[in-house]
Amino acid sequence: TEPRFNFHVATFLARDLRREGAQVVLTRHSNHGVGPCVDRRARFLDEAHADVALDIHADGGPVSGRGFAVLEPVRDKVNRRVVGASARFGNVVRRELLAMTAMPVSTYDGEDGITKRADLAGLNLATQPKVLVECGNMRNAHDARMLTSTRFQKNLAAAFTAAIIAYLGRG
Q1: Rounded distance, CA 15 to CA 103, Å?
Q2: What is the pLDDT of residues 160-170, one digit of tens each?
Q3: What does the DSSP 8-state code read for residue 39?
Q4: What torsion do the CA atoms of 85, 106, 54, 162 make, to the nearest 10 degrees?
Q5: Residue 116 gets which letter from DSSP?
Q6: How are the residues of the chain apportioned to helix, strand and coil, as percentages rounded to the nearest 5?
Q7: pTM recorded for the entire structure
Q8: Which of 20, 47, 96, 134 is catalytic?
């Protein structure tokens, strides 16, 4: 399931970042039940004074569609100060995903792996650089095999770790 995939990648990412000395804030601590609403998640990140935020997902696109898409915010009332920084972070995430995983950019969402979205509350409420990554298409058989692989999930986490470190200027 997508929640299981998301949680596994987030757990690997948190482990990798903590090894690098980062303080990590997860909005879920188990894969049971329903996570907090997006407005509450935004408050968690604000209260933690997060430097950057990443939403991990898997898409349910057309069966013939493949690949990942990095979703970036467009200017809104709350996020207006971080739209440019989010775009820079998104470009770093895209670069690391291409370098460290075998997942191609999306063939059906966005342009060259980047999608600007105004309709996602998690991005609209961000006060720190933030992107949402659709790591692949669950409805495509090739992507689904990759997404369910523990090795691929760990590679994703490594790519996200590299992107966060590079973006924050520590790598």
Answers
A1: 22
A2: 999 999 999 96
A3: H
A4: -80
A5: E
A6: 45, 15, 40
A7: 0.95
A8: 134
